[in-house]
Specification:
Blueprint (H helix, E strand, L loop, with lengths): L2 H11 L6 H7 L10 H4 L4 H6 L4 H18 L12 H8 L9 E7 L5 E9 L9 H10 L4 E8 L8 H17 L2 E9 L2 E4 L8
Parallel strand pairs: 3-4
Antiparallel strand pairs: 1-2, 1-3, 4-5
Helix pairs in contact: 7-8
Length: 203
């Protein structure tokens, strides 16, 4: 595939007319043609080098995907309301592509506005031991009024396991003890998200 011809087509008709393979040709990554674009979008430069790209080209590809994400993704900022599960998902959706389970807490003020997020645990591909003490230590230290619990499923399926449900119950009980308002538990994954509140499992 001739790079100059592809570039000419883009200049005349815009990038939307180009195939994935042609876009990869333009960023100097023709050797990746045939790979699934959604997978490439989350690979590190080191992983691309292992697939045969030179370091400079690998860095350029990673930078191009990151610029695309930043242009299309507008997560809530500090001081913005962050109670709706879809908003929480927007804030934390990058977790969907982390290869191991992580548990994060979203800290909120009395009006449900975002203070910040913090990772409190990291596990394996299929589990992540969580200490309620660590979860609420962060909330108390930041004087958060409310929290949303968030973790990811590297499998791509956001449906909660029985262990997820048990953890949710334990964390809600812990929140009552320390006087923090537990607002939801959201699971993010490649296939979307699951909210215990949205699913009617938060009573």
């Amino acid at each position: 595939m001739d790079r100059s011809e592809v570039r000419e087509r883009m200049m005349l008709n815009g990038p939307t007319v180009l195939s994935d393979e042609e876009l990869l040709v333009l960023v100097g990554a023709a050797s990746l043609a045939g790979e699934v674009m959604a997978r490439l979008a989350w690979l590190s430069a080191g992983e691309l080098v292992k697939m045969g790209l030179a370091e400079g080209k690998a860095a350029a590809v990673v930078a191009a995907f990151e610029l695309g994400r930043r242009g299309a993704w507008a997560p809530p900022q500090r001081g913005e309301r962050c109670l709706d599960p879809r908003t929480v998902h927007e804030l934390m959706r990058g977790l969907a592509h982390v290869p191991v389970e992580e548990f994060h807490v979203v800290l909120l003020d009395v009006r449900g506005r975002l203070i910040r997020t913090e990772k409190v645990a990291q596990g394996s591909v299929s589990q992540c031991p969580v200490s309620p003490r660590e979860v609420f230590r962060v909330a108390v230290r930041e004087a958060a009024h409310g929290v949303v619990f968030v973790h990811n499923h590297p499998s791509g399926n956001p449906s909660p396991s029985p262990e997820d449900a048990d953890l949710t119950d334990r964390l809600r009980a812990g929140a009552d003890i320390v006087g923090v308002s537990a607002r939801d538990h959201v699971i993010v994954a490649g296939d979307g998200y699951f909210s215990f509140v949205e699913a009617g499992r938060w009573r």
